[in-house]
Amino acid sequence: MAKVIALYNIKGGVGKTSAAVNLAWIAADEGARVLLWDLDPQGAASYLLRIKPKVRGGGSKLVRGKSDPAALLKGSDHERLDLLPADFSYRNMDLALDATKRPTRGLSRVLEPLSEDYDYVFLDCPPAISLSSESIFAAADVLLVPLIPTPLSLRTFDRLREFVARDVPKPRPQILAFFSMCDGRRSLHRRVIEEHAATDGVLAAAIPAASDVERMALQRRALAQFAARGRAGRAYGALWTELRGRLDG
Amino acid sequence: MDVHRTQLLLPDGVSAAATADRLAELVAVVTQRAHAVDRTFWDTFDGRLHAAGLALAESGSRLALLDAATYDERAAVDRARGGPRRLLAGDLPAGELRERLAPIIEMRALAPVARVRSRLLPVNVLDDEGKIVVRLQAEEPSVRSGDGKRALRPRLNVIGVRGYDADFERTVLLLTGELGLEPATRPVHHDAVEAAGGVAGGVSSKLRVTLAPDERADRAAVTILRRLLEIVEANLPGTLADVDSEYLHDLRVAVRRSRALQRELRGVFAPEPLRVFRDGFRELQALTGPTRDLDVQLLEFGDLASSLPAGAVADVVPLRRLLEQRLVVERQAMVRGLSSERTRALLDGWSAFLDVLVASPQDERPDAARPVAEIAGERIGKVYKRMVGMGRAIDDDSPHEALHDLRKKGKELRYLLEFFASLYPAEVVKPMIATLKGLQDVLGRFQDREVQVDALRALGDDIVAVEGGAAALMAMGVLVQRLGAEQDEARAQFGERFERFAAKPQRRLVAQTFG
Questions:
Q1: Structural domains of chain B ordered from first start
Q2: Could you tell me the pTM of the whole model?
């Protein structure tokens, strides 16, 4: 049974896609069979992997069980990493889910037949709390939340945890955060990281705001393919090792 | 979820690099650094993985079960490098690989059949986004055999990428059309096994001979006996080296069949040399008997022990140890005998005898020149009739020996049908073998249970003398009781199985076919 890790934050531009692509690639490099589902209609993860953001039949047929998800998969440039691509129709995912009998089961229904073929499934989620978020909570074993190291982000993270604990039915996903886009020159970032990294629910590994990460979009490759030994490349490696430890433990 | 794969052979004299260059002129490709991979392929002596469409490849510390045609991985385990060169199913760690292999190889051992070194040049075909849509691997394989390294025909492995089926098909068309590559009809390890002097499908111990009905009986006898001698010789090294218990089994079956044919077609041989060889083969059978009996007892031990109540399973451990100790002693004696000059002289002498049989004088060989179908028909008809008579005489009060004798006759008929099957229509032979097999299964079970009970009883005195012997003896008592009940069950099934074997339509068919 695959472990499902959802890269999730209600805010955009916090490094979800970079984390999803890099972590998925590193896991595949280690020998795991990995699936990445690009749920964001903007299709950034699909773009990085050079795969067209198009799903035959669109998101609606998929979550209604009318498409065979296995037939929609695309192999990436890594032999063990497959992608379920983004589709522009995912912007209407809420409507599509709402039209199903059990809206919160929509994503799980897609993943179940694929579960035996993979060790890890990464979900690159669109921002916002909505019906599709609830479906993500139901499908995921872990919500992995990238946080900009600011007090406001921490507050939002706490709110998310409260929401899940209060409003999401069991079994609830484990919620873990990591600091993303960290700028060592900014004292606020340094202080927040010092105080909160490796504490309750926040992982120790922190991803720097490095130009390597920005270059991913130019190169259209994962960091492991062109800058594995750089600061950001190593940070994603450490993040995966730490996360895998939590998943296995 | 497997991806498309195919293997193409490079044209003679064309290197992997030249193929990659040529391809680059036609489509966008990116070539990666070449590297070498060493793989050792394993199979059983009789090629069971080959027959199941599988391959077992060891590369580095990884032992992987593959689809033989596509090399898609089915299961794998890590294994210490330089580990034993012989593996029984029980030697593998518990897990999927063992679960898949065990029912296929059963009691047979896996051993290396070919060591292949491949130089691989990865070439990836890209689409207009620069994404890999087909993976190619130009492979230059060579096999290591006793006398060094031999190059095998280079090939190109074409591996699809999920979701890019059209690109796969387009690339294969390009390679076979523009570049003149042809589909490989078999995987690289089959080439390797044959280049190393082996047989890709393994060594069969099946009789499989084709005779002509009007062929001289002595010539037919030589055809069958030569094949049986081949089987004996093929299984002798594995028997001596104790690779697995099946070598000895197949060797003994071939010796028993040889003895049966010597008896059935005795009129094609001169009496005196035949007597000498029959004595020799009888000795060979006797020499290998005790080891085989112990092999069987140990092979069946697990099943037998698992039929005990849970608390008593551990009690029979001393019994197993005792059997293993005896096997060591008996095997040593057998190996001495089989490696002796006497055995070599017997087999060489028999081979030389078969070489000249047809040309030797016929005055003491009355059946030599008769058409084989005539003698075969007579013998099959006669033995069948005799079995029908013997079976009819058996009732609830008949002694065990009556069933044992019928089983022996049944074996004789089985051998005759195997030897001469090619002379008769399959629609006569097949149902006859089927009903005979049904009968023999019951008779076999009836006798085996008795033999097992006798074997357990014979061990009774010795087992009490070892540590834990008293508990073992009590557990053996339970086993004896169970085996006795199974023997009664087999006997109860006899009547129905015999009726099928001796049914009127079958009797009529036998009379019509075999006279």
A1: 5-195 (2.40.320.10), 205-370 (1.40.20.10), 372-515 (1.40.20.10)
A2: 0.78
